[in-house]
Structure formats: C-alpha cells, structure tokens
Amino acid sequence: MSGASQGNPARFRTPLKGVRGLGPAKEGIHHFVIQRMTAVALVPLTLWLVWLVLRVMHADYAQARALVHDPLNATLLLAFVLALFWHVQLGIQVVLEDYVHTRWLEVTAQVLLKFFCVLGVLACWFAIVRIALA
Amino acid sequence: MQDAATERAAVVSTLMDRTQTRNGTDIMPHTARPISPHLDIYRWQLTMTLSIIHRATGIALAVGTLLVIWALFALAAGAESFAHVQAFCASKIGLVLLIGWTWSLFFHLGNGIRHLAWDTGWGFEIPRAYATGWTVVVFSLLATALVWTCVFVRGGVA
Q: Which residues of A touch B115 (CB under 8 A)?
C-alpha cells in the first residue's frame, strides 16, 4: 500500500499487461476465427473435390490433366489447397500444444509444421498453375 | 476403534498435504473426491468418443495431404509419374488408406459442421448433442459407402 505512494513501479503493474493483445483487443480469437473460416470454406470445396477425384480416378492421364487444366477447376483447386493447409496448420498446432510437453520439441514441431504447410501450399499451387497454363 | 481413528487421521493428513499450498492454506475441501475428469474413471460415452475421433481423423487427414501433393506433382510431371500414383491407389495398402481417408474426411466434415453449429450456440442440449452425433456417424458411413460404390461400379480404382 505504501509501496505505491513511494513510487515502487511494481505496484503499478496490473494483470492487464499479461492479457494486452489477447481477448478484448480481438487478437486472441484470430486462431479461432481463421480455423472456422477455413472450415466453412472447406465444406463446399471438399465435397467438390470428392466429385473431382471420382472423375480423375477413371480418367487416363490426358483426361485427368484436362480436368485440372479447366479454369474453374484450377481456381477451385488453388482455393481448396490454401484452405486445406491453413486448416491443417491451425488444427495440428493445437494438437502439438496439447500433447508435446517438452518445450524445445514443441517449438521445433510447430516450426516444422508451419514450414510443411507453407511448402505444401506452394508445391500444390506450382503444380496446379503448371498444368493450368500448359 | 482406536485403529480406525488412527487410520482416518492418516488419510485426512495425506489429503491435507495434497490440498494445501506451500504455506499451508487450503485450496480444496478435505474430501476424497476425484481431482478432475480423468479419462480412466470416466464412463465412456458417444460425445467424448466423437470428440476424440474428430481429432484422430483430423490428424489422419493432415497426413493425407501428402497424397494430395504427390498426386498434383505427378500430374504436372507426366504420364509416367501419374501412373505411379494410380498404381499406389490401386494397391491393397493404397485402397485401405483411401477408404480410411474417405471415411475420415466425411466424419471430420460432418462433425465439423456440428462444431460450427455449436459455435452459433445451437445444439448443446444433451439429447440434441446425441442426435447430431449419431447423424454424423451415419452420414459418414453412408457417404463413404456411396463414394466407394461409385468407384467399384465403374471398375475400381484407376
């Protein structure tokens, strides 16, 4: 009590410091919101993908390429791949947070996960664009 | 009688050790209650099972993205590479994986929609949570059966 009046800076530190940038600042829900948005996007995209894969399964190579070459299919595939890997990153991130209790292992796994997902998107985009523009 | 009293005192003392902070203040009442809902004492029920399966299928599908990358790369690379993907998909291991991923996909999709409904505040009542849960189970099985019927009716994979 007397500490505050005597100018002890520790007395002025409130729990607010620890939560700044989280809930009330609308930043802490970023993970939640993006996970839901990618989920909503993936509902129609996944159903469409199942349809596309069923057609690709019984196609020969040229027909399969033609399906991905189609501008609408190519666009939807680009969108699907982005939503997919983003959703994977957010989901597996939580799984790692929950089950990996060794700090350095968890951080390593989180970094590798992000690298994998970014690379996954780039690789798929590259392949799709290459087929679409061929 | 004396023994019972001593025993009881020992139990109470042990519990107090567990429920006191370092400076001796109580943080829990001195009763032998389970500390938290640990899985090994929980009665197994549909809702928790589906929750666990949602996670498991999510992890399985994350692994499945490898096939997506491989298939798209092979399709871009040429007919020979694409034939490898088709051969893998038509193999026994490939088939088991594909059918597993198909079911995982439909389960995660259905249960994901259930989660989205919960996010709006709908469906938390116990009977409704069970009804939607069973709906997801039935949907995932039917959708998987439908997709693979389509595949096999048209002559199997590739």
A: 39
Query: What is the chain A residue with the closest CA to B102?
Result: A50
∠ CA A31-A33-A37, rounded to 5°: 115
Q: Give ipTM to 2 decimals.
A: 0.82
Of chain A residues 28-57, which have a CB less than 8 A from chain B? Answer: 36, 39-40, 42-43, 46-47, 50, 54, 57
Q: How far apart are the C-alpha atoms of B60 and B140, rounded to whole Å?
A: 15
Cβ atoms of B67 and B105 closer than 8 Å: no
For B51-103, what is each residue's pLDDT tens digit?
Answer: 999 999 999 999 999 999 999 999 999 999 999 999 999 999 999 999 999 99
CA B132 to chain CA centroid, nearest Å: 16
Query: What's the pLDDT tens digit per position in A82-126?
Result: 999 999 999 999 999 999 999 999 999 999 999 999 999 999 999
Classify A106 in phi/psi space as left (phi over 0), alpha (psi -120 to 50) or beta.
Answer: alpha
A126/B76 Cβ within 8 A: yes
Would you say residue B143 has pLDDT above 70?
yes
Query: How distant, in Å, are the alpha carbons of A51, B61, B72, B148, B150 from that of B68?
Result: 15, 10, 6, 18, 20
